[in-house]
TrEMBL record, chains A, B:
Pathway: Amino-acid biosynthesis; L-leucine biosynthesis; L-leucine from 3-methyl-2-oxobutanoate: step 3/4. This is 3-isopropylmalate dehydrogenase. It comes from the Bacteria. Transmembrane segments: none annotated. Substrate binds at residues 93, 103, 127, 218.
C-alpha cells in the first residue's frame, strides 16, 4: 500500500488558515489505499520569538525524513526584515537543494486580471533556486558610517545553470507549444549573462523540437503586460525569477491563486510546495485569505510525487470553482476549501 | 545672450529619426535670443564596425565641452550583446557620473494602456545610475568548461546611495503629494538592503513633510499593475530601476512616450537625455517610430538647464497631441514631430 509522509509548516499569519484547507483538499483527493501521514512543524515568527531559532540542523534532519513539505507562509512584521527569509525560507531552499523553483501562471476564464481584454495566459516560469544574488555572498565594511560599502555577489556556476536549463527544456518539450524563453540581462551582467546564454544555446541543441528565444528582464516585464500569450516556458535566474513571477501572478489572477514548488528533481531531499503569497498579517485570522494558491501547490506536490491523476482532479476542481465563482460574493477561506474538497472527491 | 551647446548622438536604428524630431521641437520652442549650437557624434554600431571603437577618452573630452547631450538610441543586432551597452551607454553614464537616472511615468487621458479601467498614473522613478550590479565588477573562471563560475558584484556605497536618496526626497518634497517609496529587496539582499534602508530612514528625518514607505521589488511589480496610483516618487537601485521603469513605461502609455534623463545634478559633467526605448532595428528607416519619448526627453533636458517655461510648453503640447490623437490613424515620425513643433511655437 502507498503512503505520503508529509511535513506541514503552516507558519505565520494566513499560513495557518490556508494550509488547513490545502490538507482538507489533499485528504479528499487521495484514494483510500494511500495512507497520508502528516507532521506539523512550528517554524516562523512565534518559534523565533520563543527560542531565537529559525531552522536548526536538527530541524533539517527531521524534515529530511518526509516525502515532501507543504508550507503556508513565513514572515511577520515583529521580526526584522531578512531574519526569517534568510534564516528559514532561503536556508531550507539551499539545504535541500531546491534548484528548480516552479511557478505556473494560467489565467482561467472569468478570473479577474488587471489587464484589459482578458488575454490568454498559460506559461510556467522555471526559476533557478540555489544561486544568483540569493547566495548570501557579499558583505559590508565601515557599517553605519559615511564610508560604508555593501556588496552583493551573484554566483552562477555551469553546474547550477545547466541543470535548471535542462529541466526547463524538458518541461518545454512536454508542452504542446514547445517554446522556451531565456530571461536575463546579458547586455549588462555580461559575466553571468554569457554563462547563461552559452549554456542555454548548448542545451538547445539537444532539444531540436523546442523553439527558443531570449529577452532581457526589463523587456520581459513589458511583454508580461502587453503580450503575455507569447510565453510558454521561461527559464531565468533566481532574482529575475522572483521579480517576474510576482508580476506574472498579478496579471494571471493575482497572488491568491499563484502556486509554487521548490523542487529537488533528483529527490535527494524532500521538495517544498507553497503559495507565492506571503503571510498577510493584516488579514490573518479573519477567514479572508484565499486558499486556492495553497490548494494548487498541493496539486504540484502530488504531481511531483507521481500522483498525476489526483493533481489533475485538483486543477480541474479549481478551474471549475474559479469560473463559477466569477462575479459572486466573496467566500470565506474554509468555504472555498470545502467547495474544492467536495469537487475533488465527487 | 543665452546659448545651448548641445551634443547630439542619433545612434542606431530609429535613433536617427526620433532625434531629428526632437531637435525640430527644440528649435521651435526656444526663444529667439537663445542661440542653439549642436554638434553631431556618430557613436554606435556603424562607428564600432568601422573603427572598433565605442567611446574613447578623446570622445569624452569632446562631449564634456557641451551643456547637455541628446541621445536617440544605441544598439544593433550586428554587434554582440553587451559591447555597445557596456562600451558606450554605461561607460558614458559612469564617466559623467550620471547618478540620478530620472524616469517619469504619466498616463495621459485617452492614451492606450494595457491595464483595464484607465487608472490614474503619475509618478517619477529616481533610479541610481552609477552603482549596484551595473559597475561591471565580477568575473569568470574556467570559462566555457563545466566548472565555469561567473560572478556579478553589486557595489553600493553610503556616498552613492545617500546622494540619490537625497535627490529623490527633494523631488518628492516639491510635488503635491510629497510621497516617496523605497523599492529594494532588503529581505534577501541584506547587505545592500540595510545600507539603502538605513540611509533612506536617516535622510527621511530631514524631510518631515514627505510621507515614506518601503516595498520589495517583486511586490512593486504587482502594485504597478494593480494600483499604480499609489506611487508618487520611487527611489531605487540601478538594476531594480531598470526593470520597474520598463514596466512603468508599459503601463503608462508604452515606451513610445517614456523619457529619461541621466543626470549629474552638480553639473560637473553634461547630463544626457534619451528615450527609454531602444534602436528598434525592425522598424528603422520607415518613419514608423514615435518621436514623442525623445521630445519629452528634450523637455527634461530644458528643465535641467533652467528653461522651465519651455519645458512646460513641450509637456503641454505632448499632452494635447496625445489626447487628440487617441483613436486616430497612426502618423509618421515626422508628422508627429511637425505637429508638436507647431504646437510649441504657437
Ligand atoms: C520571501 C522571499 C525570501 C521570497 C524570495 O525572494 O524568493 C519570496 O519573495 C518568494 O518569491 O518566494
Ligand atoms: C541598454 C541598457 C544598458 C540600459 C540599461 O540597462 O540601463 C537600458 O535598458 C536602459 O534602461 O536605459
Amino acid at each position: 500500500s502507498r503512503s505520503i509522509n508529509l511535513a506541514v509548516i503552516p507558519g505565520d499569519g494566513i499560513g495557518q488558515e490556508v494550509v488547513a484547507e490545502g490538507l482538507k483538499v489533499l485528504s479528499a483527493v487521495l484514494p483510500q489505499d494511500v495512507k497520508l501521514e502528516t507532521k506539523e512543524f512550528d517554524f516562523g515568527a512565534r518559534r523565533y520569538h520563543a527560542t531565537g531559532e529559525t531552522l536548526t540542523d536538527g530541524d533539517l534532519e527531521q524534515l529530511k525524513r518526509h516525502d515532501a513539505i507543504l508550507l503556508g507562509a513565513i514572515g511577520d512584521p515583529s521580526v526584522p526584515s531578512g531574519v526569517l527569509e534568510r534564516g528559514f525560507l532561503l536556508k531550507l531552499r539551499f539545504a535541500f537543494d531546491h534548484h528548480v523553483n516552479l511557478r505556473p501562471s494560467k489565467l482561467l476564464p472569468g478570473v479577474a486580471t488587471p489587464l484589459a481584454g482578458q488575454p490568454e495566459i498559460d506559461f510556467v516560469v522555471v526559476r533557478e533556486g540555489t544561486e544568483g544574488p540569493y547566495t548570501g555572498n557579499g558583505g559590508t565594511i565601515r557599517k553605519g558610517t559615511e564610508h560604508e560599502v555593501a556588496t552583493e555577489v551573484s554566483v552562477n556556476t555551469a553546474f547550477g545553470v545547466e541543470r535548471v536549463v535542462r529541466d526547463a527544456f524538458a518541461r518545454a518539450q512536454a508542452r504542446p507549444r514547445k517554446k522556451l524563453t531565456l530571461v536575463h540581462k546579458n547586455n549588462v551582467l555580461t559575466f553571468a549573462g554569457h554563462l547563461w546564454t552559452n549554456i542555454f544555446n548548448k542545451v538547445a541543441e539537444e532539444f531540436p523540437e523546442v523553439t527558443t528565444d531570449y529577452i532581457h528582464v526589463d523587456a520581459a516585464t513589458i511583454y508580461l503586460v502587453t503580450d503575455p500569450g507569447r510565453f510558454d516556458v521561461i527559464v531565468t535566474d533566481n532574482l529575475f525569477g522572483d521579480i517576474i513571477t510576482d508580476l506574472a501572478a498579478a496579471v494571471s489572477g493575482g497572488i491568491g491563486v499563484a502556486a509554487s514548488g521548490n523542487i529537488n528533481p533528483g529527490r535527494e531531499f524532500p521538495s517544498m510546495f507553497e503559495p507565492v503569497h506571503g503571510s498577510a498579517p493584516d488579514i490573518a485570522g479573519q477567514g479572508k485569505a484565499d486558499p486556492t494558491a495553497t490548494v494548487l501547490s498541493v496539486a504540484l506536490l502530488l504531481r511531483h510525487l507521481g500522483y498525476d491523476s489526483e493533481a489533475d482532479r485538483i486543477d480541474a476542481a479549481v478551474t471549475a470553482d474559479l469560473t463559477e465563482r466569477a462575479g459572486k460574493p466573496a467566500r470565506s477561506t474554509s468555504e472555498i476549501g470545502d467547495a474544492l474538497a467536495v469537487r475533488v472527491a465527487g
